[in-house]
Amino acid sequence: MIDRVELLSEQDVSGFQIEDKHVETFLKDKNIGYKLHKQRKTRIHLAYSKKNLIGYVALYNGSIKGRHFISDEFRSQEPIPAIFLGRIGRDIHYKNTELGHELVDIAITLAFRVANLSACRFLVIEAYEEYAKKIWEDKYGFRHVDKRERKRSLERSTSKEEVFNIIMVLDLCAYRNPKELD
Predict the structure, then answer these.
(1) pLDDT digits (tens, 9 = 90+) for 76-108
(2) Can you give the residue range of the structural domain that contains 85?
(3) How far apart are alpha carbons 179 and 107 in whole angstroms?
(4) What is the total count of domains within the chain?
(5) Which of 33, 30, 28 is CA-nearest to residue 16?
(6) Residues 112-169: pLDDT tens digits?
(7) Cβ of 19: how many Cβ atoms within 10 Å?
(8) Contact 105/90 with Cβ under 8 angstroms?
(9) At the N or C end, where does the chain have fewer CB atoms within 10 A?
(10) Considering the entire predicted model, what is its pTM?
(11) 3-class secondary structure for 54-90?
(12) Angle formed at CA 141 by CA 99 and CA 124, multiple of 5 degrees
Protein backbone atom coordinates (compact mmCIF):
# COMPACT_ATOMS: atom_id res chain seq x y z
CA MET A 1 0.00 0.00 0.00
CA ILE A 2 2.74 2.50 0.96
CA ASP A 3 5.12 3.04 -1.91
CA ARG A 4 7.28 5.87 -0.51
CA VAL A 5 8.10 7.70 2.70
CA GLU A 6 9.59 11.18 2.85
CA LEU A 7 10.27 13.85 5.43
CA LEU A 8 7.85 16.72 5.76
CA SER A 9 9.00 19.84 3.91
CA GLU A 10 6.69 22.02 1.84
CA GLN A 11 4.19 19.33 0.80
CA ASP A 12 0.51 20.18 0.59
CA VAL A 13 -1.25 18.26 3.37
CA SER A 14 -4.59 20.08 3.16
CA GLY A 15 -6.51 17.12 1.68
CA PHE A 16 -5.36 14.74 4.40
CA GLN A 17 -8.19 13.72 6.77
CA ILE A 18 -7.94 11.75 10.00
CA GLU A 19 -10.74 10.58 12.26
CA ASP A 20 -8.89 11.83 15.38
CA LYS A 21 -8.88 15.61 14.90
CA HIS A 22 -6.04 16.14 17.41
CA VAL A 23 -3.77 13.95 15.30
CA GLU A 24 -4.89 15.75 12.11
CA THR A 25 -4.30 19.18 13.65
CA PHE A 26 -0.78 18.19 14.67
CA LEU A 27 0.14 17.70 11.00
CA LYS A 28 -1.89 20.49 9.41
CA ASP A 29 -1.40 23.37 11.87
CA LYS A 30 1.73 25.29 10.83
CA ASN A 31 2.29 26.25 14.49
CA ILE A 32 2.29 22.71 15.91
CA GLY A 33 3.83 19.72 14.08
CA TYR A 34 5.28 21.69 11.18
CA LYS A 35 6.99 24.14 13.54
CA LEU A 36 8.40 21.31 15.69
CA HIS A 37 9.62 19.59 12.52
CA LYS A 38 11.34 22.76 11.24
CA GLN A 39 13.01 23.24 14.64
CA ARG A 40 14.13 19.59 14.49
CA LYS A 41 12.36 18.82 17.77
CA THR A 42 10.41 16.11 15.97
CA ARG A 43 10.70 14.50 12.56
CA ILE A 44 7.52 13.91 10.58
CA HIS A 45 7.66 11.13 8.00
CA LEU A 46 4.90 11.23 5.36
CA ALA A 47 3.67 8.00 3.74
CA TYR A 48 2.36 7.99 0.18
CA SER A 49 0.51 5.63 -2.09
CA LYS A 50 1.05 6.73 -5.65
CA LYS A 51 0.83 10.52 -5.30
CA ASN A 52 -1.58 10.57 -2.36
CA LEU A 53 -0.58 11.30 1.22
CA ILE A 54 -2.13 8.46 3.21
CA GLY A 55 -0.43 8.61 6.61
CA TYR A 56 2.38 9.89 8.78
CA VAL A 57 4.50 9.11 11.81
CA ALA A 58 6.17 11.69 14.05
CA LEU A 59 9.27 10.64 15.98
CA TYR A 60 11.42 12.49 18.49
CA ASN A 61 14.35 11.68 20.79
CA GLY A 62 14.42 11.64 24.54
CA SER A 63 15.21 9.37 27.43
CA ILE A 64 13.40 7.19 29.95
CA LYS A 65 14.15 5.71 33.33
CA GLY A 66 14.51 1.96 33.19
CA ARG A 67 13.92 0.91 36.78
CA HIS A 68 10.47 -0.57 36.12
CA PHE A 69 10.96 -2.64 33.03
CA ILE A 70 14.50 -3.69 32.18
CA SER A 71 17.02 -6.11 33.63
CA ASP A 72 19.25 -5.25 36.57
CA GLU A 73 22.33 -4.70 34.41
CA PHE A 74 20.81 -1.52 32.93
CA ARG A 75 19.06 -0.07 35.99
CA SER A 76 22.07 1.98 37.02
CA GLN A 77 22.43 3.54 33.57
CA GLU A 78 19.71 6.18 33.82
CA PRO A 79 18.49 7.96 31.78
CA ILE A 80 18.37 5.54 28.84
CA PRO A 81 18.21 6.98 25.30
CA ALA A 82 14.87 6.40 23.58
CA ILE A 83 12.88 7.35 20.51
CA PHE A 84 9.29 8.41 21.06
CA LEU A 85 6.47 7.77 18.61
CA GLY A 86 4.73 11.07 19.21
CA ARG A 87 1.95 10.79 16.64
CA ILE A 88 0.74 8.35 14.03
CA GLY A 89 -2.01 9.27 11.59
CA ARG A 90 -3.87 7.34 8.91
CA ASP A 91 -6.08 8.98 6.29
CA ILE A 92 -9.75 8.33 7.06
CA HIS A 93 -10.25 6.71 3.64
CA TYR A 94 -7.94 3.86 4.74
CA LYS A 95 -9.71 3.11 8.03
CA ASN A 96 -10.36 -0.62 7.58
CA THR A 97 -7.08 -1.49 5.90
CA GLU A 98 -3.63 -2.59 7.04
CA LEU A 99 -2.26 0.95 6.67
CA GLY A 100 -2.06 1.57 10.42
CA HIS A 101 0.12 -1.52 10.80
CA GLU A 102 2.32 -0.41 7.90
CA LEU A 103 2.83 2.95 9.60
CA VAL A 104 3.83 1.25 12.85
CA ASP A 105 6.27 -0.92 10.88
CA ILE A 106 7.78 2.25 9.40
CA ALA A 107 8.16 3.80 12.86
CA ILE A 108 9.81 0.64 14.22
CA THR A 109 12.13 0.39 11.21
CA LEU A 110 13.22 4.02 11.53
CA ALA A 111 13.75 3.61 15.29
CA PHE A 112 15.75 0.42 14.71
CA ARG A 113 18.01 2.25 12.24
CA VAL A 114 18.64 5.06 14.71
CA ALA A 115 19.30 2.55 17.50
CA ASN A 116 22.02 0.96 15.42
CA LEU A 117 23.61 4.32 14.61
CA SER A 118 23.47 6.17 17.91
CA ALA A 119 23.00 3.87 20.89
CA CYS A 120 19.27 4.20 21.37
CA ARG A 121 17.61 1.36 23.28
CA PHE A 122 13.81 1.82 23.23
CA LEU A 123 10.87 2.97 21.14
CA VAL A 124 8.32 4.56 23.49
CA ILE A 125 4.62 5.23 22.99
CA GLU A 126 1.76 6.57 25.03
CA ALA A 127 -0.99 4.18 23.99
CA TYR A 128 -4.67 4.72 24.57
CA GLU A 129 -5.46 2.32 27.39
CA GLU A 130 -8.18 0.51 25.44
CA TYR A 131 -5.72 -0.43 22.66
CA ALA A 132 -2.63 -1.18 24.76
CA LYS A 133 -2.99 -4.95 25.12
CA LYS A 134 -4.80 -5.79 21.89
CA ILE A 135 -2.58 -3.87 19.51
CA TRP A 136 0.66 -2.64 21.01
CA GLU A 137 1.48 -5.52 23.33
CA ASP A 138 0.10 -8.54 21.46
CA LYS A 139 0.92 -7.51 17.88
CA TYR A 140 4.18 -5.57 18.30
CA GLY A 141 5.69 -6.68 21.61
CA PHE A 142 5.54 -3.39 23.49
CA ARG A 143 5.53 -3.69 27.29
CA HIS A 144 3.99 -1.46 29.95
CA VAL A 145 6.55 0.70 31.72
CA ASP A 146 4.64 0.39 34.99
CA LYS A 147 1.14 -1.03 35.05
CA ARG A 148 0.23 1.28 37.92
CA GLU A 149 1.24 4.37 35.97
CA ARG A 150 -1.40 5.88 33.72
CA LYS A 151 -1.58 9.38 32.29
CA ARG A 152 -4.85 11.18 31.72
CA SER A 153 -5.22 11.82 28.00
CA LEU A 154 -5.77 15.56 27.80
CA GLU A 155 -6.69 15.33 24.12
CA ARG A 156 -9.33 12.61 24.43
CA SER A 157 -10.81 13.19 27.89
CA THR A 158 -14.08 15.08 28.21
CA SER A 159 -15.92 16.43 31.21
CA LYS A 160 -18.07 13.26 31.13
CA GLU A 161 -15.40 10.65 30.48
CA GLU A 162 -11.75 10.32 31.36
CA VAL A 163 -9.50 8.51 28.91
CA PHE A 164 -6.10 7.24 29.97
CA ASN A 165 -2.83 6.59 28.16
CA ILE A 166 -0.36 3.91 29.17
CA ILE A 167 3.37 4.36 28.61
CA MET A 168 4.76 1.37 26.71
CA VAL A 169 8.22 0.47 25.37
CA LEU A 170 9.65 -1.74 22.67
CA ASP A 171 13.20 -2.97 23.33
CA LEU A 172 15.01 -2.31 20.05
CA CYS A 173 17.92 -4.54 21.11
CA ALA A 174 15.56 -7.52 21.19
CA TYR A 175 13.73 -6.59 17.99
CA ARG A 176 14.66 -8.62 14.90
CA ASN A 177 14.64 -7.90 11.18
CA PRO A 178 12.47 -4.84 10.68
CA LYS A 179 11.15 -4.33 7.18
CA GLU A 180 13.47 -2.39 4.94
CA LEU A 181 12.35 0.99 3.64
CA ASP A 182 13.24 1.70 0.04
Answers:
(1) 557 788 899 998 999 999 999 999 999 999 999
(2) 4-171
(3) 10
(4) 1
(5) 28
(6) 998 888 888 889 998 877 777 778 888 888 888 765 555 544 444 444 556 567 888 8
(7) 11
(8) no
(9) C
(10) 0.83
(11) EEEEEEEEEEECCCCCCCHHHHCCCCEEEEEEEEEEE
(12) 80
